Here is the input.
Amino acid sequence: MFGRRNHHNESFSKSHNTSFDKHRAGKATSSKQKRSFRDAATVAKKVERVKKPDHSPPASSTLTSPIITICVGPEQRLFAAHEDVISHSPFFAAICRGQFLETSTKKVNLPEELPEIFSSVLEYLYKGDYYPRLLHNKRRNTWELEETETNNNNNGGRGGSVESTVFHHGSGQVLLKDTMLYCTAEKYGLDDLKRLALRKQGLQSGIQCSTILASARYAYANTPDSDSKLRAHYLALIIRSRSTFKRSGTMQMEMEKGGLMFFDLFVAICNHMDDMASAKSPLFTKSPRTPH
Here is the structure.
């Protein structure tokens, strides 16, 4: 019986031999076979060099529509937005048609949402991006996150700042902001925001094991089985960073809890080993896949 390991301060630090920086997540790819993440294990380790993504704000140029007041979270923090802006989300379009809107005050109540996440959603709807912004490095022809004041002061310009995480009161855990935005965008029907959040999360570094695993569970709980991109991102990250996760006491406890994520992880590891064996030996014959 293996003893339980100490899981305090388990992170992908710069000094660690298997740092998060070396295993930075790239663009996740979905598999054609249900719950098979063959492509996820071979995701590129470097920032993808692609054409500039089109995340232009869908908002109207005039902004003359009525103002909607939105009460967010248990503390009812107030936000204001133009109706024609938030209606680009099918979720809010249905509300603005009067199904749930308080017509006398044009107010919407979202008690389950986090103000930090909803604020970023609104920022995206108006500006086409959210803080920290995605910037193009022309010299390297790569995409990077803008450096925040927290990064510059505490981390020497590297990742892992407070801006990358949000405390989720429902679970009592710290989660990756981009993961929560991806799941919120799924609910609001904002596919471009999902793509932007996934791209940004692939640029994060210096994140603790416990935060990664908690965020992965959140992703599984808040995305449909038909949407495997964010799930595959986490599976690929764990596989590439396996030298760190296999020593993680948090990983051990999470595996003891079980869940669909760890079955998918097992399948992804098997596919990864098959691919490695195929690359070494062209005569290697893969064993039949067990149907789900």
Summary: The chain has eleven helices and seven strands.
